[in-house]
Amino acid sequence: GDSVTQMEGPVTLSEEAFLTINCTYTATGYPSLFWYVQYPGEGLQLLLKATKADDKGSNKGFEATYRKETTSFHLEKGSVQVSDSAVYFCALIIQGAQKLVFGQGTRLTINP
Amino acid sequence: EPEVTQTPSHQVTQMGQEVILRCVPISNHLYFYWYRQILGQKVEFLVSFYNNEISEKSEIFDDQFSVERPDGSNFTLKIRSTKLEDSAMYFCASSERRNTGELFFGEGSRLTVL
């Protein structure tokens, strides 16, 4: 079946560090890929998306590139801030389907 | 900015009791969803709803679960007879379009079954 695997957390970094959160997927059809973020006390929010191979999604300084050859969608940011502390979820949806398939989430803590 | 709101934020109930979780989706959205996350596990799809009908449901969504849009604004999830394993965070979501991964989620309702 369809599944998403994220790197284990929690991840703790210092402010201005480089961030990578790995995400790989298995899909029976052609997926669109997403990163969602959940800040403390809030619901999940869409951070960025990519709908086809080699697309790069970007938002708020975060980027992820849809790599079909490695079935990956790693999240990166060049210089993290304390306000980036949150739980990050990688997800996919198969074309024509209605349900998002999520990874397990990665808790990120940024220390000043 | 429009948002999805959920009530209650936390509910504690005894095993076997009925629970209703409530959601107010974004007003111009037509597609509604429930997801849940058991502590330490992945966020899982439960059900999608459109035009007063269930359009897709997962294996988790058995006869103990039901959804309803009782009026023009609320969208509810009912668990008829709760079990210990129903303890989870339940997220409501809505979207403008069908078959999209661009969902707007509420903050969640934490259900604890004792």
Any overview of this molecule?
The complex is a heterodimer of chains A (112) and B (114). Chain A has 112 residues and is mainly β. Chain A has no helices and twelve strands. In chain A, the strands form three sheets. In chain A, strands 2, 5, 6, 10, 11 and 12 form a six-stranded mixed β-sheet that branches. Chain A has a four-stranded antiparallel β-sheet with strand order 3-9-8-7, with no helix packed on it. Chain B is an all-beta fold and 114 residues long. Chain B is 0% helix and 50% strand. Chain B has no helices and eleven strands. Chain B has strands at 5-7, 10-13, 19-24, 31-37, 43-50, 53-57, 65-68, 75-79, 88-95, 104-105, 109-113. In chain B, a hairpin with a 6-residue loop joins strand 7 and strand 8 (75-79). Chains A and B meet through strand 5, strand 6, strand 10 and strand 11 of A and strand 4, strand 5 and strand 10 of B.
Summarize the entry for a quick read:
With 112 residues, chain A is mainly β.
- Sheet-strand content of chain A, in percent, reads over 45%
Q: Structural class, from secondary structure content of chain B?
A: mainly beta
Mean pLDDT of chain A: 95
In round numbers, the mean pLDDT of chain B is 94
**Bulk shape of chain B:** globular
Low-pLDDT parts of chain A are none
Helix content of chain B: under 10%
pLDDT under 50 segments of chain B (min length 5)? Answer: none
Distance between termini of chain A? 41 Å
The sequence of SSEs of chain A as H and E is: EEEEEEEEEEEE
Q: Please, how many helices of chain B?
A: 0
How many strands in all of chain B? Answer: 11
Oligomer: heterodimer
Q: Largest chain-chain contact?
A: A-B, 26 and 27 residues
User: How many strands appear in the DSSP assignment of chain A?
Assistant: 12
Helical residues, percent of chain A: under 10%
Order of helices and strands of chain B: EEEEEEEEEEE
**Envelope shape of chain A:** globular
Q: Enumerate how many helices of chain A there are, as a single number.
A: 0
